[in-house]
Amino acid sequence: MRDELILVVGGTGTTGSRVVARLRERGVAVRVASRGGEPRFDWTDRTTWDWALAGVTAMYVVPFDGQSLTRPFVGRAVAKGVERIVLLSGRGVDVPGYAGEAGAAGPTHVDGEAAVRALGTGSGTGTGVRWTIVRPAWFAQNFSEGFFLDAVLTGELRLAAGDGAASFVDAEDIAAVAVAALTEDGHGGRTYELSGPRALTIAEALTEISGAAGREIRYVPLSPEEFVTELRTQGLSAAEAADYAESLSPLRRGLDSHVSDGVRRALGRAPRDFREFVKSAAADGAWRQSDAI
Ligand SMILES: NC(=O)c1ccc[n+]([C@@H]2O[C@H](COP(=O)([O-])OP(=O)(O)OC[C@H]3O[C@@H](n4cnc5c(N)ncnc54)[C@H](OP(=O)(O)O)[C@@H]3O)[C@@H](O)[C@H]2O)c1
Predict the structure, then answer these.
(1) What number of other Cβ atoms are within 10 A of residue 151's Cβ?
(2) For residue 179, what is the domain's CATH number?
């Protein structure tokens, strides 16, 4: 029997770093794949893939949005003997019209999921590979370490999200589900849609964050056209601006407000509430005034 070694692709990011921490807490051997690692792993340089996969028994994969690299990477991994795969995807990938033409992540997730499903039932029969797909809603951590943070620190979050609500999921729950799927039985062949226990609009989320941060952080709704124009003045390319605006479109259209049961299905407990996320992010200093720009 081989020694267990779990590869975490994207192990320096929002979900991957939490997966790494939880695995290490359990005493599991972990390899972090990232561009800053030694040796370096780069999705766009296939010569860096094999070292990352050497000796690996299981892996958590944060895909490279905008390209269809999950499929060849999974193929290489299976050829090298990886027996268990947990793939991060996104809620809405199977909903017609959810992602628009400009969205970069949608096609990456659709193709990545298809590549993993093609390995068989996922329960260990067929190719023998156990796979689990994790489809999270919008991350709560977008406000504390993701793409909303810089604006939140200025006291004004300007977005083309309308009054749409989202059932933000805590990345701690995403990591907990991923780790369960990587280390326990009973998750093979399952697709877990993950959300928090309630939906909040951006304005409601910022009201909760303002309370914890001790200062007002306002939401300024913009039209998609205004939003794209602002992003362009901030230096984003036309394609990047269109992609960001498009990624907000499901939220604006109210497609992200439903609550999913994946955390309970996978872990047998309720998901963390947004309030708990706000409390712990504030305690970690996510919105400290001195960090404001
Ligand atoms: N944010 C949301 O609300 C949300 C909701 C649903 C689904 N998702 C999906 O979640 C995924 C993002 O997950 P995340 O937030 O955990 O990740 P993240 O924080 O965005 O981090 C991205 C990770 O990928 C690595 N990376 C970036 N470019 C790379 C490259 N060329 N080669 C190798 N590694 C590279 C980064 O590592 P280094 O920079 O260290 O190399 C980092 O570890 C996306 O697929 C997105 O579509 C996001």
Answers:
(1) 17
(2) 3.40.50.720
